[in-house]
Amino acid sequence: MAIDHSGGSTVRIENVSKQYDSKQGTVQALGGIEFSVERGEFVCIVGPSGCGKTTLFRILAGLEPPTDGEVLLNGSTVTEPNADMGIVFQEYHLFPWQTVQENVAFGLEKADTPADEKRQRVQHLVDLVGLEGFEDSYPKALSGGMKQRVALARALAIDPSLLLMDEPFGAVDAQTREMLQDELIEIWQETGKTVLFVTHDVEEAVKLADRVVVMGKNPGSIREIVEIDVDRPRSRSDSEFGSYYERVRSLI
C-alpha cells in the first residue's frame, strides 16, 4: 500500500535551557540551545558524554519541559509527545507478548482507521523495514537489529512528520549497525520524514546527516553546526568523508 507522505515537519529550538536542583546546588545542563530543522531534513546531534544530548532529546520529544525557551513543531509549542512525532529509543520497548505485526499496529489502536486499511498499513511498514515473513514472530525470536526495525516501523505507523531517534543503533553489533544505517537512509528518502537523530558516534553522524549539530558541555551548548556536503550513499573510504569526520571530531 502506498502511503501519502506530503513532507516532513519544521522544528525550531528557541533559546532552550535546562537547570536541575541538586544537593550541590543548581546544575545547568543546557544553556541557550538554538537551531532549526527544515522540512524533510536529516539532522544528527553529537557531543561528548555529559553535554546534555539526552536531556535535549527528552525536551524535543516533550518528555520533560525546558527551564527556559521552547521547542516548536510546525509552529506549535511542544509540551508532550504527540501524534506528529515518532520516537525511537536505544532500548526497543517492544511488547514481548505481541507479534511483530501486533507491535507495529500498536500505534494505530486509537486511530479511527478501518480495519482493512490498518492491516494494509502495518504490512506496508513491515515490508518497508525488511521484516516480511516475520509478521507472526515474537520479540524473543528476533535479533537486536530486527527488534529495532520493529521499533522503527511502530514509530512510523502513525505517519508522523518528525522522527526522533536517540542512539537507536547503540545496542547492536557494528555490522548490523551499518546495515541499519543504510536502511534508515532508504526509508528516510522514501518517506520524506524530518529526522532528528542523537548519537555519540561521529562516523555515524557524518554518514547519515545533512547537518551535524556539535554540542559542548558545562553547560550543554552548540559549538558548531556542520553541513555535510557529500552525495549519498557515503563511503568511509572517501577523502571528503574523512575530512568531515576529522572536522566534527576536532570540535568534540
TrEMBL record:
Group of enzyme by EC: translocase
Record's keyword terms, sorted: ATP-binding, Molybdenum, Nucleotide-binding, Transport
Keyword Transferase: no
Record keyword Lipoprotein present: no
GO cellular component: plasma membrane
Family (UniProt): Belongs to the ABC transporter superfamily. Sulfate/tungstate importer (TC 3.A.1.6) family.
Function: Part of the ABC transporter complex WtpABC involved in molybdate/tungstate import. Responsible for energy coupling to the transport system.
Protein name: Molybdate/tungstate import ATP-binding protein WtpC
